[in-house]
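Batch job 17 of 40 flagged for manual review because the log was empty.
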Amino acid sequence: MRETTHQYAETILAVRTIPWRHDLAIICAAGEIDTGSVGLLQQALWQDLPAGLVLDLSGVTFFGSAGLRAIEVAVSRARAERRRIGIVAAARPVLRPLRIFGVDAWVGVYPILADALREVPLSPPPPERPAGFEPRS
């Protein structure tokens, strides 16, 4: 019997939402974010979210372009809704694409969850920016 796409995604990526406070939630992702699993992350990012969001990618071992696009959409949504967002990432497979495409210039990227939980509620929403995350020159 063939696995469905959803079953496949759940074998390589776990995503959960943790309500932290009335104005802050954490979305934790662990595993591989690729075209087959990104839907799980997108589903979590498109739920009704509070004013602040910490996206914890510290457990991510592979971060493909589909994951980067999901982050781009989440940041655009946060900007449009005047919400705050921060990303937790310390591993090279996640940090490198975030830096190459300039995401870290528009959104706080924190090495540990405690830093993000302390800073994100105080940070301003992402600033206005042209559509798309263009690579840095």
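Reviewer: the log was empty due to a logging misconfiguration, but the result itself is present. The chain has a mean pLDDT of 88. Unflagging and moving on to job 18.
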